[in-house]
Amino acid sequence: MILHRSPTRILAASVLLLAVIIMCGLGFWQLDRMEQKEQRLASIAQKQSGGLMGLQSAIRSAGDARDLQVAFTGTPDTSRIMYLDNRIENGQPGYDIVVPVQTEAGWTLVNYGWVKGLPTRERLPQIELDEKITRYQGVITSPGFNPMVTETADSATFPLRIQALDTDYLSTLLRTPFIDYVVVLTTSDDRFIRNWSPVVMPPEKHLGYAIQWFGLAFAALIIGLLALRKKEISHE
User: Fold this and answer.
1) Range of the domain at 27
2) Phi first, then psi: what are they for 21, rounded to 5°?
3) Do the domain assignments include residue 57?
4) Is residue 157, in this structure, part of any structural domain at all?
5) Residues 6+ apart with CB under 8 A from 98
6) Would you tell me which of 83, 107, 175, 176 could form a disulfide with 95, CB atoms 3.0–4.6 Å apart?
7) pLDDT, tens only, 30-62
8) How far apart are CA 196 and CA 186, in angstroms?
9) CA atoms within 13 A on the CB side of 26
10) Is residue 100 within 8 Å of 174, Cβ to Cβ?
11) Beta bridge partners of 134
């Protein structure tokens, strides 16, 4: 066959095979992500079936306190408001407002919710918080590490703009021993947008993406084989 004797045909076939393998790999990766999300959602449903817990009890009683619903009393340090940068809500840039709160479990970073950013990044939106002892209700979360995000805050000057919720880094920067978790508030407040979701993308979307990748792989294989066959016939 001409195909076997032509370096060009061999190269084209190799590229086609590599493309199909990559697309199939992406499809299986999406299926794996779907399974992970399903397991996470099942774990969350089980954890939250018991209702609200105290913050200290939740941390002490669970090996992994993430996603537990908690209610607790704390005193916010409103002199140390932090603005978590680059948070997008409905396509609009803004900030998550994070405040240190003294609780029975120790100093805790509490995410009050999202606020819209100002037209200029030189200024931060003004937030007024109640300094009195406050009753909180929310969900325990564990900030994920993102290697693409570099923290730029290097001094404890408030209000403080931060790029990531790194409890260890902030404990050192602010000289305050924060617990390893962050509480995201879930009760309604007109000053903030609070729409906490345990997963950004539901399992169904991962399944849809997997089907798309497998479909693209199949289409590329068929089209590529037909093109190679056509070239081979034209040289016979």
Assistant:
1) 2-40+203-235
2) -60, -45
3) no
4) yes
5) 81, 82, 83, 84, 109, 110, 111, 112, 162, 165, 182
6) 83
7) 999 999 888 888 877 877 777 889 999 998 876
8) 7
9) 14
10) yes
11) 74
The C-alpha angle 178, 69, 67, rounded to 5 degrees, equals: 75
CB 135 within 8 A of CB 71: yes
Cα 82 from Cα 144, distance rounded (Å) = 18
pTM comes to 0.76
208 pLDDT exceeds 60? yes
The CA distance from 69 to 47, in Å, is: 8
- Quickly count: other Cβ atoms within 10 Å of residue 113's Cβ: 25
Q: Is 113 in the same domain as 172?
A: yes
Residue 197 lies in a domain: no
Closest C-alpha among 128, 160, 138 to residue 74: 138
Residue recorded with tokens 């021993």:
177
- Residues 180, 131, single domain; the answer is yes
- The first and second tokens of residue 215, run together, are 């479909």
Count of structural domains, the chain = 2
Helix (H) or strand (E) holding 87: strand 82-89
- Nearest by Cα to 163 from 111, 82, 85: 85
Q: What is the torsion angle, in degrees rounded to the nearest 10, for the CA atoms of residue 32, residue 145, residue 85 and residue 97? A: 100
> In this predicted model, what pLDDT tens digit does every residue of 153-197 receive, in sequence order?
777 789 999 998 899 999 999 999 999 999 999 998 889 999 887
CA–CA separation, 112 vs 41, rounded Å? Answer: 23
